[in-house]
Specification:
Blueprint (H helix, E strand, L loop, with lengths): L2 H7 L13 H11 L11 E5 L3 H10 L4 H4 L3 E8 L3 H14 L5 H15 L6 H16 L12 H25 L3 E5 L4 H8 L5 E10 L15 H4 L4
Helix pairs in contact: 2-8, 3-9, 5-6
Bound molecules: flavin mononucleotide (FMN).
Length: 235
Amino acid sequence: MNLYEIINKRRSVRKFTDEKIPEEIMKKCMSSSLLAANSSNLQPWEFYWIKNPDKKKQIVKACFSQSAARTAREIVVSVSRIDTWRRNRDLIVANFKHQEKFLPIVDKYYNKIIPLIYFNDKLGLSCMLRSICSVLINIIGIFKPVPRGPYTKSQLFESVTKTTALACQNFMMTLVAEGYDSCPMEGFDEKRVKKILGLNHNCHVVMIFGIGKADQNGIYYNRFRIDDKLVIKTI
Ligand SMILES: Cc1cc2nc3c(=O)[nH]c(=O)nc-3n(C[C@H](O)[C@H](O)[C@H](O)COP(=O)(O)O)c2cc1C
C-alpha cells in the first residue's frame, strides 16, 4: 500500500477479533510513532502498552467499557508531558556535542530559550511571571511580530499535546501498514487512567488506543467527511 492507500484504509474500528498481534509489530508501530515531527525535537510523549491483565481491565473500565476498548486485543495509552523537557533537552544537547554540531545558536536555543518557555514550578509562579511578561509582549506585538506563548500551564499542555497527537497518527498509520486496526479514544475518565498508570499533574492522557484485527462488524458506519470546500480554503 502506498501512503494514500494507508490513510484511506484507516478507520476507527470498534470491534476486534481475537487475533493476536505479534510483539515485534506492536513495538515497530510504537517506535514509528516516535519518528513524528515534534516541537523543538523535545519529544514530550510517552506510550504505555498495557500488558498487565488487571491494569488492562481497569483501563477498559475507565474507558466506560466502550466496545473499542472492551474487545481490543491490545491497549496503548498515549501521554503528553510538560516535565520531560529538561531531560530530553540534555540528551539533544549531548547528541549535538557528540556530532560536533553544538553551534552557539543551538546552545542559545536549548539552554536559554527552551527553559524560558518550558520551565514551570509546582506553585505556577513561572507561568504567572510569563503571563505578566505577555502584557509587555502584546504591546510590542502591536508594532512587530512576537512569539505569543506558550505562557500558561494549559498553553504548555496544548503544545506538548499537539506534538503527541502527531505521534498518535503515525502509530495508527503504521498499524494499518502492518495489517492491523485501531480506534483512538478520548472517551475515558482521565483522573482514573492517570491513577492506574501512576501519572502526575505534569501529564495529560491524550488518547487511548484499542488495537487489533477488525471484526467484520468492526466498522460501524460508512466514512463521511464534510465537503472539502467547507474546510480547505484558498486565499
Ligand atoms: C481524539 C479522538 C478521540 C476519539 N474518541 C473516540 C471514542 O472515545 N470512542 C470512539 O468510539 N471513537 C472515538 N474516536 C474516533 C472518531 O469517532 C472517528 O475518528 C471519527 O468518527 C471518524 O471516523 P474514522 O476514524 O473511521 O475516519 C476518536 C477520535 C479521535 C481522533
